[in-house]
DNA sequence: CCGAGTTCACACTGTTCA
DNA sequence: TGAACAGTGTGAACTCGG
């Protein structure tokens, strides 16, 4: 196993000097043993032989060494050719394009496979616990529902053109209006997602509008979390610019708490659905002494419990035991409270920013900062597109 | 003088993060504070927006950070535009050309100024000797003539577009035809230069044509020397490819001998003029037993001696004594003989390369390899433009 | 692993403008 | 005159297909 230093595979193996400049070579480049620099030099310059002038300001016999090679690229290029570097080994424009296309194609394939493996893993993990005593396997029906939720959401947001990156430029100049306006598209897609939840879509149109209005804060918050926007540096910038240092911190902590759930491709989506069915809680109690009134409160309750139960079963199937599931629910409730508090802070902040609120696009304005009576108004309800679904 | 780190002018001053990727910025680029990489990226890619496809393989909202910016060109470019980078700040092809021209022009001006300073120095030094016993000062008239010669030549070759460097790409594939065809433009400018010499221009048109034909070899040779092409490595390549190893060597030695005179901005030009007035010597004696016949041989002689005498006075003014001038003339004559020998070799070579000669552009073909009787033909005489001058 | 390619930090040139 | 900002060239470090 004695290693010959000349043929050894050690990293520092010496190949001999560059045929052009004598520096340490890295291998055969364009037909000749050369260093990195001469390789790059030849690729860049051999192709422009006819187009650019190469002039030696000496006598055309300049030395080409490691230290002098930069002095005269005419003589350097001449030497490259002299030692036999092959211009034909340089990929032509079309060859380069072909290679680029190939790389692109391969990358696409790889990513597709990765996504496949990923979703496959999720599907398997849903069943993985079935044989153990702890977790309870999901029924095929539940599995189907969950898979549907996942697919509906992913499809909505991955449809090309739906989300052409309207992110982040706001940066330091962000105010609440630019901050929210930037999100309009994402919000619309989120509403589209809800419309595809049968229980939600069956509700009276005004109830649907009121629900998303009432719960907009947490829904928006969770959705940004799912879309992984919350970790975006510029998002945080915008946050600070729009809500101030303290406000932004509070919002960020909420995001941090949500991140606990982000490892799971379904959990947050499911929680969003449940939240969407929750009645007003204590929002807008500042000057409305009664809670928001719904047309079909019972249907909302029923729907909510359908999904709460589904969540419960899902957690049971994912966690080792009921005990774990209870623990999970405990911390979940804590986070819910945190999030609610945050959203209330934001609401209060918005009230103080009346001037900027006027610049928010109508749809969002009516959702985020409704005048108390507009909670019952029909304006922009149709703009939410809840009217014409399925 | 306490330096505020924020307003300090120190090199390492921090400007804040790149608006695109958050890395360290280097300044305002294309309208926005960015890093070097994003600057280069934007310059490279913004211009090919219409030509190349930019596709995001995610959802079009890829993060653009220092580490991730390479992942998705589409989103990176989108972000560049989003943060306000101005495509209009990128110089267009024509703007770049305009700038290049400007740079070129400035460089030429600078060089001219430098040359002027140089010749001024020479002129001053010419007069500096006047008080010494050795060199004889030039008369104001001689000085004017010499200055004129210098200016006429420099102006002819520095006029924009006259010499767009059609040199050197020939390289290994050079044959005599490509070798000479490459020089057509320079030769035409040389003829223009001669036309501005009054004594030459007053000669009968056919005499003018015959003179430049007869003396083409040495004239061409010296002119390439003045233009400093002879030291160009690619020129030497071409030389070897066109005339073979031995032939090229001989030509190169002639160039080497001429280089002795190249330190002087006037000498070679003056010598060219004198040579231009010299009668046939022994060219084309191979099958014409009489010398070339001129219409006004006397005028040619007279002109030649005007410039020979000027050269003599010039040398007297430059060299410490008459003795030195004589020595100079001796070595000059030797070099003349060398050059003549070289040109004869080239002529012989051209005769053997009939096949390639056919590919030489007509003007040069008729000059370089005239059929014996074509020496008296009028064809291409007008092409030399000797007809319509002044 | 090899040898194509690309990216980009860095160094530099040159123009413009205050 | 020097800072700012266009440009270009170099070469180390990297990716990727075979
Ligand atoms: Zn090298
Ligand atoms: Zn050189
Ligand atoms: Zn950047
Ligand atoms: Zn992307």
TrEMBL record, chains A, B:
<keyword id="KW-0238">DNA-binding</keyword>
<dbReference type="InterPro" id="IPR035500">
    <property type="entry name" value="NHR-like_dom_sf"/>
</dbReference>
<dbReference type="InterPro" id="IPR001628">
    <property type="entry name" value="Znf_hrmn_rcpt"/>
</dbReference>
<dbReference type="GO" id="GO:0000978">
    <property type="term" value="F:RNA polymerase II cis-regulatory region sequence-specific DNA binding"/>
</dbReference>
<keyword id="KW-0863">Zinc-finger</keyword>
<keyword id="KW-0479">Metal-binding</keyword>
<dbReference type="Pfam" id="PF00105">
    <property type="entry name" value="zf-C4"/>
</dbReference>
<keyword id="KW-0675">Receptor</keyword>
<dbReference type="GO" id="GO:0008270">
    <property type="term" value="F:zinc ion binding"/>
</dbReference>
<dbReference type="GO" id="GO:0030154">
    <property type="term" value="P:cell differentiation"/>
</dbReference>
<keyword id="KW-0804">Transcription</keyword>
<dbReference type="InterPro" id="IPR013088">
    <property type="entry name" value="Znf_NHR/GATA"/>
</dbReference>
<protein>
    <recommendedName>
        <fullName>Nuclear receptor domain-containing protein</fullName>
    </recommendedName>
</protein>
<keyword id="KW-0862">Zinc</keyword>
<dbReference type="GO" id="GO:0000122">
    <property type="term" value="P:negative regulation of transcription by RNA polymerase II"/>
</dbReference>
<dbReference type="InterPro" id="IPR050234">
    <property type="entry name" value="Nuclear_hormone_rcpt_NR1"/>
</dbReference>
<feature type="domain" description="Nuclear receptor">
    <location>
        <begin position="15"/>
        <end position="92"/>
    </location>
</feature>
<keyword id="KW-0805">Transcription regulation</keyword>
<keyword id="KW-0539">Nucleus</keyword>
<dbReference type="GO" id="GO:0004879">
    <property type="term" value="F:nuclear receptor activity"/>
</dbReference>
<dbReference type="GO" id="GO:0045944">
    <property type="term" value="P:positive regulation of transcription by RNA polymerase II"/>
</dbReference>
């Amino acid at each position: 196993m004695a290693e010959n230093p000349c043929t050894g595979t050690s990293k520092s193996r010496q190949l001999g000097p560059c045929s052009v400049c004598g520096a340490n070579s890295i291998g055969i480049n364009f037909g000749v043993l050369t260093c990195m620099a001469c390789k790059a030099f030849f690729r860049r310059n051999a192709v422009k032989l006819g187009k650019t002038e190469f002039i030696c300001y000496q006598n055309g016999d300049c030395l080409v060494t490691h230290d002098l090679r930069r002095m005269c690229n005419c003589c350097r290029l001449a030497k490259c050719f002299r030692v036999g570097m092959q211009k034909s080994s340089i990929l032509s424009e079309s060859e380069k394009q072909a290679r680029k296309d190939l790389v692109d194609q391969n990358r696409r394939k790889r990513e597709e496979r990765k996504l496949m493996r990923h979703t496959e893993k999720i599907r398997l993990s849903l069943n993985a616990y079935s044989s153990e005593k702890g977790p309870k396997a999901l029924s095929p029906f539940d599995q189907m529902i969950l898979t549907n939720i996942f697919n509906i959401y992913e499809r909505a947001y991955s449809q090309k053109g739906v989300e052409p990156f309207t992110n982040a430029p706001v940066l330091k100049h962000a105010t609440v209006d630019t901050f929210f306006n930037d999100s309009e598209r994402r919000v619309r897609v989120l509403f589209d997602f809800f419309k595809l939840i049968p229980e939600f879509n069956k509700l009276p149109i005004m109830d649907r509008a009121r629900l998303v209005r009432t719960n907009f804060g947490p829904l928006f918050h969770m959705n940004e979390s799912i879309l992984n926007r919350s970790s975006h540096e510029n998002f945080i910038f915008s946050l600070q610019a729009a809500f101030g240092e303290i406000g932004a911190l509070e919002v960020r902590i909420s995001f941090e708490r949500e991140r606990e759930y982000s490892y799971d491709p379904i959990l947050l989506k499911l929680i969003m659905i449940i939240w969407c069915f929750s009645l007003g809680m204590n929002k807008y109690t500042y000057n409305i002494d009664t809670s928001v009134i719904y047309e079909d409160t019972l249907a909302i309750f029923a729907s909510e419990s359908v999904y709460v139960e589904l969540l419960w079963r899902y957690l049971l199937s994912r966690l080792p035991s009921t005990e774990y599931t209870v623990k999970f629910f405990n911390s979940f409730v804590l986070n819910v409270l945190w999030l609610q508090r945050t959203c209330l802070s934001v609401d209060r902040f918005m009230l103080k920013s009346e001037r900027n609120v006027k610049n928010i696009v109508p749809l969002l304005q009516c959702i985020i900062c409704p005048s108390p009576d507009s909670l019952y108004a029909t304006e922009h309800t149709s703009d939410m597109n809840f009217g014409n679904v399925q």
